[in-house]
Design a protein that fits this description.
Length: 345
């Protein structure tokens, strides 16, 4: 809302402005408030006292007073001398808000509490990831979709990975086969040493990061400017099961991709052929395999040439005849018009 910028709210969670105090108090009492009620007080979102309701983005739910106190005290520990004067007011504010929450039964939409939390904005996502990294003691599991990892993507998470390696945390990463061709990833894995084990698949699920099998982060929108922080045991266990099953199907990064058994057809072209047989468009195939549409079409052209197909319809027939329309497996002898018979190896 115009006229209510962040500069008008230069305070912390322990010294809310009058309007912020009123809106947060109402949120604690009722379990949530409409997003429009918080427009005059952006400080509540900036301070993470309110965050989007995962069931309805038009509503905001309050961070529990106890969690607010935990955050405040953690910051005060880093600046003890400058923050001692704030401890008393912070504790008093938390006790006051906690008392309000006990007066009224929480709304149904907030019954899960912090088990599902919406992180709105890259800064909020990074802060939550840093917090989870600091608390992690055993294992990190990640799924990284897309193709070749950009240098900035790898650099952004490097400080967290190095901190985990320093504490002896083991990491397992899943990528698409295309990621094998990125020098940045190879450099990153060399730097991390035996702390990280990487495997690849033709295609993987959307981005997933799991810490100690207790907290997971997944995207909440297509451009990944929002994320869900999941701490519900059933949800996290389900995601761990998915990861473990993909991991068993994946190929270690140190091992070569299997031969297709057909001369002139690469492993990637075999994957493209299977997706074409399922009826997918070029753009969908490219996205799932982590390559550009242009690269995808170049592979399709080579497939057509290798299989002797003059049209997309004929290419579909040739793919079926060659046994490329299903899961990767040994293929039967292939005869292409104008070419010698080839036997699968």
């Amino acid at each position: 809302m115009a006229g209510h910028g962040a500069d008008e709210h230069p305070h912390g969670a322990d010294r809310l402005c009058e309007t912020g105090d009123r809106v947060y108090s109402r949120a604690v009492r009722r379990g949530r408030v409409p997003r429009r009620d918080a427009e005059p007080v952006p400080c509540l979102l900036d301070l993470a006292l309110l965050h989007p309701d995962p069931d309805d983005m038009d509503w905001l739910v309050p961070t529990s007073p106890q969690e607010v106190m935990t955050r405040l005290l953690r910051g005060m520990h880093d600046e003890v001398s400058a923050s001692q004067r704030r401890v008393g007011s912070a504790v008093a504010a938390v006790e006051w808000y906690a008392g309000l929450g006990r007066q009224v039964r929480p709304a149904a939409s907030g019954a899960e509490g912090p088990a599902i939390r919406v992180l709105d904005g890259l800064a909020r996502i990074q802060a939550a990831m840093d917090e989870a990294t600091q608390a992690c003691t055993t294992e990190v599991l990640t799924v990284q979709p897309g193709g070749i990892r950009r240098e900035e993507e790898l650099s952004e998470g490097l400080h967290r990975a190095l901190a985990l390696r320093g504490r002896g945390v083991r990491m397992r990463d899943l990528y698409t086969h295309v990621a094998r061709h990125g020098q940045g990833l190879l450099t990153y894995l060399e730097l991390m040493g035996d702390a990280v084990e990487a495997r690849t698949l033709d295609e993987v699920i959307d981005r997933l990061i799991l810490f100690d099998r207790t907290v997971a982060f997944i995207p909440a929108n297509s451009d990944r400017t929002m994320a869900l922080e999941l701490r519900h045991p059933a949800l996290v266990a389900y995601l761990v099961t998915i990861f473990d099953r993909l991991w068993r199907l994946a190929i270690p990064l140190t091992a070569p991709l299997p031969d297709t058994g057909i001369e002139g057809i690469s492993h990637r072209e075999q994957s493209i052929a299977a997706l074409l047989a399922e009826g997918h468009q070029d753009a969908v195939i490219a996205e799932r395999l982590g390559i550009s549409v242009r690269t995808c079409r170049a592979h399709i052209a080579r497939l057509s040439e290798t299989l002797g197909a003059a049209s997309r319809t004929q290419l579909g027939v040739r793919i079926a005849q060659a046994g490329l329309d299903g899961p990767h497996q040994a293929t039967p002898p292939l005869t292409v018009p104008g070419r010698e018979s080839r036997t699968a190896r």
